[in-house]
Amino acid sequence: MSPEQTSLLQGTLDLLILKSLRAGEMHGLGISRRVEQITGGTFVVKPGSLFPALHRMEEEGWITAFWGESENNRRAKYYRLSKAGLKQLEAETKRWSRISLAIGQALEAS
Amino acid sequence: MPLLVKARSFLRNLFFIRRVDADLDREVHSHLEMLIEEKMRAGMAAAEARRAARIELGGVEQVKEQVRDSRTGAFLDSLVQDFRFAIRSLRRTAGLTAFVVITLALGIGMTSATFSMVDALIFRPYPVPHPSNVVSLAGTTHDSKIEDFSYREYLDIRDNTKSYDGVIACADMQAVGYSAEADVTPRIKGGMMVSGNFFRVLGVEPRLGRGFRPDEDQVPGRDAVVVLGPDFWRHEFAGDASVVGKTIRLNGTPFTVIGVAPDEFPGLLVFGHPDLYMPLAMARVFSTDIGKNFFEDRDDRELNVKARLKADANLQDARNELALLAKGFERDYPNLTRSRGAAVYTQFQTRTTEDQNWKFGVVFVILALAVLLVACTNVAGLLLSRARERAREIAVRLALGAGRLRLIRLLLTESLILATLGGLAGIAIGYGVIEWFHSKDTIIFATELPVAVPFQMDKRVLLLCVGLSVLSAFLCGLAPALQSTRVDLVNALKSADVEVPGRKRLWGRNMLVVAQVAMSLMLLTASFLMARGFQHDLMVGTGFTKDHLLMTSFDPRLIQYNATQTQQFYKLLAERMRETPGVQSEALTQNIPMGTDDFDGLTFVPDGFTMPPDRANFASTMDTIDEGYFATLGIPILRGRAFLTTDTADAPRVAIVNAHFAKHYWPGGDAVGKHIRLDNSAGVPVEIVGVAQTIKYQTMSDPIDFVYMPLAQRPVARMVLILRSSGDPLQLLQPVKDAVRSVDPNLPLLHTQVYEEYYLNQAVRGPEIAIDLVGTMGAVGLFLAIAGLYGLVAYNVSRRTHEIGIRMALGAVSSDVLRLVMGKGFVLVGIGTGMGLVMGFALEQLMNSMLFNSGGVDVVAYLIVVPSLFLVAMLAAYVPARRACRIAPTQALRYE
Questions:
Q1: Alpha helices in B486-562 (DSSP H)
Q2: In whole angstroms, how large is the CA radius of gyration of chain A?
Q3: Whole-number Å distance between alpha carbons of B708 and B629
Q4: What does the pLDDT look like over B619-672, one tens digit per residue?
C-alpha cells in the first residue's frame, strides 16, 4: 500500500462517502475500499476519520444505518443514502465543481 | 427537517448512551474482523493479518473515542462526565476539598466585602439616568481643591456656561425640625435645599406628584413646597398616595407636599438619604449662617454645584469655560473672590477629593487581595502535590487515548468546582461582613440625620465575586494541570515515581513557598502597623477631660426664634443651668470636640503680616463658645485669659487661639495682645486675648490651627450645651429638661447623652472596627500562610524520602540530612522574608502617607512576625525529615 497520503480537504470526505453510497448500501470497510477505488488510490480513509464522519452524517440525517449480513455472512453495519443525503450530494457536487473550476482557472492564469 | 433529526440524535446520545455505545463497539469490532478476513484472503497468515489489521485500524478504543467526540452534544456529554468525575475525586479527598474551599472562601469573602466599601465610596454611579454625564463644579483655593459656591456665584455659573444641559445646586443635608401639625413638638429630619431644576436636570421622575416648577425657585420665601424622600414617605406616611397636597411644618413654617422622589433615587450623597427636598428660594427658613444673606452675599458659600454635560461637550472645554468664569469673579469682586479658582470634576474625581475615607477602603482591598493570593498559592500548592500523586493515573489515561486538552479540561473542571464552592461560600462571608458593618451603623454615625453605611452586596460586587472565583480557578488550576499532563509516558509508566527532579518544577514550588512567606509578612506588617497606629493615638489622648459630662443640643430655629430671641434663650439657659444643683459648670459650644459635625472655617490675616500677592488670607478651623467652655472641658489656658461675661456684642472683638496657632504665626513671640483681621487685611480687627492648650479637635491626627470666638460676638443658632456634674451625669437629665421647659416648653432637646459614651462611639469604637477588620485579615492571612507553608515544605521533604534513603544507605548520618533539607527551607523562607520586608515597607510608606503620618518603621512588628515564620518553616521541614531519617534505608528505597 503506497498511495500518496493526500490529506483530505475539509468537506471532501463527506462528498466522497456520499458519492460511494450513491452506488448502493455499504458497510464501513466497503465504503473505505470504494473511496480508494474511485479516487484511484489517491485517498485512503482511515477508520479514525471514517467512523466519526459516518456517525456525524447519520446524525445530520444524510445517511441511515442498519445491521445486515456481510458477503461472508458476518453481521455488519450498513449505511444507505437518504433523501436528504441525495440532496446534499447534489449540492456538494455543484459546490465542488465550482471550486475546482475556479482553482483550475486560478492556477492557469499567469 | 435536519433539525429534528439532530434533536433526536442528541436525545438518543443523552439518554440511550449505553445502547449507542454498545452498537458502536460491535460496529468497530466487526470492521476489524472484516479487515482481518480481507488480509487473509490476500494471502497473509492469520497472526500477521490480525496484526496488520490492528495497525490499519489504529486501536479500537481510540476510534471509538473519536466517534464519541464527533457526536452531537459531545461537548456537553464530556462536560457532564468531567463534572461527575471531578466531584467523585474531590469527594474522595473530602478533608482537602473542605480546606481548599474554606481557604478560597475567606479570600473571596474578604475581597468582596472590602471592595463593596471602595465601590460605595468611589465607584458606584449616581442613581440617575446617564450618570457619567453628571459632573461637579467646585471652587478652588490655596488650601482646598473642592469648595462650595455661593448662591450668586451659582446663578452666574448657571446662566453663563454653555457646556451643560443644566446646572443644579444643593446645600449640605441639614437637620430640619419636622412636624405633621402645628402643635406637635418637631422631630429632627434630614433636609436638603436644592435648586428648582434639580430633579429635571438629573432626569429623576417623582413617583408621586411632581418635581419643582421653574417659577418655584424665583422669589425668595414665596413658594413653600417640599418633595419627600422615598424612605421618609414610607415611614411617616405609610406610603399614602394622598400625601401630595398636604401641608407639613418644617422649622415651624408650613410647606405643601408636591411630590415624592422615586425609590431608585435615594439622593446624590454617599452616606445620607435626604428625607426632604426644599427649593433654595426657601433658604431663610433653613439658613445656617445668621450673619450672612444667602441670596445676596457672594461669600456665603454653602452650595454644592453639579451639572449635566451636554452630549457633544468635552470636559476640557467645560474646564476652560469655568476657569474663565472664575477669573471674571476674581476681577469683578476682588475682595470676596481673591485667588479663588474653579474646577470641573468627574464623579470619580469628586469622590476621591471631597472625602479621604476611601483610602482606608483601598488599603483594606489591598490587604484582602493579599489574603486571596495567599489562599490561591495554598490551593495551587495542594493541587500541585495532588496532581503529582495522580501522575500515574494521568499517564495511563494519556496512553489509553485521552487527549491532552481533554485532560487539562478535566483538571480545570476540578479547580473550577473548587473555586465555585469557594466563591459561593465567599459571597456568604462577604454578606456576613457587610451585615456586621451595618450592625455598627449607629456607632459609625452618631447623628440623628438619616445616614447609613452604604456598603452592599450589589450586582457589581457579585460580579467581582464571580470574576475572582473564575480567576482563582485558573490561577490555582492551570499550572498544575499543564504540568501534570506534560509527562514522558514511557518513563511515567515504567517508574513508580514520575517525578524527575527537573530544576523548573522545583523552582515552581519554591516560588510558592517564597510567595507565601512574603504575602503573609506583608499582611501582618500592615495589621500590626494599623493596630499600633490607632493605639498610639489613643495613648496620646485628646487633651481634655471627658468624664462627668452631659451633652444636649438645641436649635431654636426649629420653633422659629429669630437671632435676638435665640441669643436671649442661650443666655437664660446658661444662667438657669448654673443655678441647678449638681451642675459644677456649664458650657455652650457650636461643635463638641471629636464630634460628627465639621467645625466652621475662618479666614483671616494676622495683623502686620504682608500677604503674598496671590493670597488674600489664611484659613483655620474655629469654634464658637461661651465663658464656661474651657473650665468645663478642662482645657488649660496657657497665656492670657479665657472669655469673660464682659466680652459682649458691644465690647471690642476678642478671640482665643490654640498653642499650635500661636506658634505657627508668632514663633518665639507672644500671641496675646496681637490682632487678626477677619477675611482680609481690611477686615474687622479681633484681639487675641488668650492661648489655649492644643487638643484633638475632630480626628486623632496631627495638631491643627484653631481659633475660639465668644458666642456673644458671633451668634450661632444651633449650639451644644455641656454640663459637668459632680455625680452621675445622667442625674442631670431631668433638671436640664425642667430648666428648658421653664424657658420654652416647645423646644426639643436633641441628641442628649453622656459625652464619654459619645466619645467612645465616635473616636474609639470606629477605629476599633477598622482594627478588628485588619486584625482579622492579618490573622486569616497568617493562618493560611502557616498551613500552606507547612504543607508545601513538608511535602517537598517527604517527596525526597527516596533520595534520603539513598543518602543514608551511602553513609550519610541524620544530621547531614537534617542540615540539607532544613537549610533549603531556611533559604526559601529567607528569600520570602526579604521580599515580604520590602513589600511590607512599601505598604507601610503608603499607609503612612495616606492615613497616619506617624512615620517610622515598626520594628516590634517585624521582631514578632519574622521569627515565627522561620519557626513554622523549620518545623515543617524538620518533622518529615526526622521521619525520613528514622526509617531504614531499605524501606526508604522501596517507598513510593
A1: 489-494, 503-540
A2: 15
A3: 10
A4: 899 999 999 999 999 999 999 999 998 999 899 999 999 999 999 999 888 899
Terminal Cα distance for chain B, rounded = 59
Q: Which residues of A touch B35 (CB under 8 A)?
A: 29
Question: Which chain B residues touch A34 with a CB distance below 8 Å?
Answer: none
Phi, psi of B135 (to 5 degrees): -120, 160
Most confident of B396-410, B468-482, B671-685: B671-685
Give the amino acid at B209.
G
Q: Which is nearest to B205 in space by CA: B244, B260, B274, B280?
A: B260
Most trustworthy range by pLDDT among B100-109, B618-627, B807-816? B618-627
- From chain A, the residues in CB contact with B2 under 8 A are 60-61, 84
B-chain residues near A59 (CB < 8 A): 5-6, 9, 71-72
- Tens digit of each residue's pLDDT (9 = 90 or more) over B540-570: 778 888 889 999 988 887 777 888 888 899 9
Q: How far apart are CA B210 and CA B258, in angstroms?
A: 6
Nearest to A76 among B23, B30, B67 (CB): B30
What is the model's pLDDT at position A10?
57
Task: Report the relative pairing of strands B301-309 and B164-171 from DSSP bridges.
Answer: antiparallel
Per mean pLDDT, which range of A91-105, B267-281, B684-698, B748-762 is the poorest?
B748-762
Lowest mean pLDDT among B114-123, B210-219, B292-301: B292-301
Q: Does A46 touch chain B (CB under 8 A)?
A: yes
- B84 — contact with chain A (CB < 8 Å)? no
Give how far A108 is from chain B: nearest CA, Å.
38
φ, ψ at B46 (rounded to 5°): -55, -50
Instruction: Give me the interface pTM, i.e. the ipTM.
Output: 0.86
Of B267-281, B327-341, B453-467, B855-869, the least confident:
B855-869
Burial class (CB in 10 A: 0-12, 13-18, 19+), B400: exposed
Measured in angstroms, the CA of B81 and the nearest CA of chain A are apart by: 20
Of B26, B38, B71, the CB nearest to A59: B71
With H, G, I as helix, E, B as strand and everything else as coil, classify residue A40: coil
**Which among A29, A48, A84 is the nearest to B63, CB-wise?**
A48
Does position B354 have pLDDT exceeding 50, yes or no?
yes
The residue of chain A with its CA nearest to that of B54 is A47
List CB contacts of B66: < 8 A, sequence separation 6 or more.
Answer: A48, A49, A51, A52
Contacts of B34 in chain A (CB under 8 A): 27, 29, 70, 72, 74, 76
Q: How far apart are CA B142 and CA B790, in angstroms?
A: 55
Rounded to a whole number, what is the distance in angstroms from the first to the last CA of chain A? 37
Q: Given CB atoms, is A51 within the 8 Å cutoff of chain B?
A: yes
Question: pLDDT of B20-53, one tens digit each?
Answer: 888 888 888 888 888 888 888 888 888 998 898 8
Q: Do A74 and B70 touch (CB under 8 A)?
A: no
- Is there a contact between B63 and A84 if contact means CB atoms under 8 Å apart? no
State chain B's mean pLDDT as an integer: 83
Mutate to test the interface with A, among B1, B6, B9, B29 (most CBs of A within 10 A): B9
The β-bridge relationship of strands B276-279 and B187-194 is parallel
For residue B49 the three cell numbers come to: 493479518
Which residues on chain B are in Cβ contact (under 8 Å) with A85?
none
The span from the CA of B375 to the CA of B536, in Å, is 32
Query: Which ranges in B541-654 belong to alpha helices (H)?
Result: 563-579, 629-633
